[in-house]
Structure formats: C-alpha cells, structure tokens
C-alpha cells in the first residue's frame, strides 16, 4: 500500500510540474499527437497551414500536397469546437487552414514520441519544441517537414 501511495504522489508531482509524457488523443477519427514537456533547443523553422492529413492526423501543409506530421507542444488539445481546431497553451485556438510558424525540428534518435497510429502518414515528422515558439502567420520555409 505504501508503494502505491508513493507512486501516486510522484505521478501527481510530475503532472503538477508540467512534466507530462507524450500523448496521443483521438476524437471522431482525428488524431492529435502531443510531445512531452521539452527543453530541447532545435532551431529549425516549421511553418504551414493546419490540416488533417492522411489517416486523420493533425499536421501542417505548405501546398496541400506535401505535409508533415507534427508532434505538438505539451498541453496542446483538440478543441471541442466544430470544425476541427487545436488549442495550444499561451497561443490559443488554431483552426484548420490557419498558418502558423514554430521552432522545432526533426525528432532525435532517442526522443520519446507518442504512439503514432498506423493509419497516419509518418514519412515526415517534425516536433515543435514548446508553445513559446509558436507564432500565428507565415514564415519563410521551403518544406514544413524538413525544418531549416
């Protein structure tokens, strides 16, 4: 019983401190992949329009043809609103078709990512390193899935 109580206490402290692990959310066939709290300092620029890609995964597209599966910052959620939108803490609601730019890059070889659903196109994955790096509006970038 004592071990269970200690485990619950540690889990509660981690959640309270913002150290949540990677998570995958699904609602009505839409998948949102959220990374853990990260202190990573990748310096690639990721930009594009919010869209729902192959298999229902929320990502970014530059031209409607190429897209990147995005691992969103910790705390990002699917909005309850219809049409589909996401909510990024400190940034707010971002709807489908809205252009954003963010700091991040390719996932590291030992980086812990949320489980990616089989139906999602995972050929190009980018990780946004935290909500403080997300800005509304366009940025100069040739390919949303490749970083700088």
Automatic annotation (TrEMBL):
Organism: Tenggerimyces flavus
N-terminal signal peptide: 1-20
Superkingdom field: Bacteria
Entry keyword set: Signal
Entry protein name: Lipoprotein
Keyword Signal on entry: yes
């Amino acid at each position: 019983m004592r071990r269970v109580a200690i485990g619950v206490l540690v889990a509660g402290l981690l959640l309270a401190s913002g150290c949540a692990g990677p998570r995958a959310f699904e609602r009505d066939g839409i998948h949102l992949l959220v990374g853990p709290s990260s202190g990573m300092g990748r310096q690639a620029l990721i930009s594009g329009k919010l869209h729902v890609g192959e298999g229902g995964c929320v990502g970014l597209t530059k031209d409607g043809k190429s897209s990147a599966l995005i691992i969103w910052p910790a705390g990002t959620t699917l909005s309850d609103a219809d049409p589909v939108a996401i909510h990024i803490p400190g940034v707010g609601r971002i709807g489908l078709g809205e252009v954003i730019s963010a700091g991040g890059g390719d996932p590291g070889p030992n980086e812990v990512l949320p489980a990616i659903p089989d139906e999602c196109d995972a050929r190009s994955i980018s990780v946004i390193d935290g909500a403080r790096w997300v800005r509304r509006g366009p940025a100069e970038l040739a390919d949303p899935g490749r970083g700088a």
